[in-house]
Amino acid sequence: MHEASVALALVDVATEALHEHGGARVTALTVRVGAWSSVVPEALMAAFPACAAGTPLQGARLTVVRVPGVGDCPAHGPVELDLTRGLRCPSCGAAVPALVQGDELELDELELGDPELGELALGRQGRPEPDPAGPERTALPDSETPGQEDV
């Protein structure tokens, strides 16, 4: 299960960002996982708590956003690809030369916690972003947020 090594890498990257921004701990992180990335989101979510144990990420909420594979069909433009069909347009069967999206494996967002300062959300660019839901933000259940899972 290579997802454990992916989870360890996420812990390393998040810990580095935590130190750069002076947070005490990471309370939540969001990861974008492409359908063609060869990472199984459920396995990543299962491995994460053990990999985060004893680190500033222990107890952090992991949210996985699944990114569908999209290719650029010469006849139809951008089309969502099916893993079982490979790099072929689902409409006409033409070969799709490359993925436009779907092979991502990105740490998209961190929420840093500091007992004195409260919560700070960092987006992809590492800049603070306002958190409209406040420090007690709760992810919606899967049925209300398609493509997103929490652990």
UniProtKB/TrEMBL annotation:
Q: Where does Ni(2+) bind?
A: H2
Question: What are the UniProt keywords, alphabetically?
Answer: Metal-binding, Nickel, Zinc
Q: Where are the transmembrane segments?
A: none
Family in the record: Belongs to the HypA/HybF family.
Q: Does the keyword Metal-binding apply?
A: yes
Name assigned to this protein: Hydrogenase maturation factor HypA
* Binding positions for Zn(2+) per the UniProt entry: C73, H76, C89, C92
Write out the ranges of the annotated region (Disordered): 117-151
Q: Which Pfam families match?
A: HypA
Q: Gene name, please?
A: hypA
The keyword Zinc belongs to this UniProt entry's keyword annotation: yes
Q: Which function does this protein serve?
A: Involved in the maturation of [NiFe] hydrogenases. Required for nickel insertion into the metal center of the hydrogenase.
- Kindly list the organism's lineage: Bacteria, Thermotogati, Deinococcota, Deinococci, Deinococcales
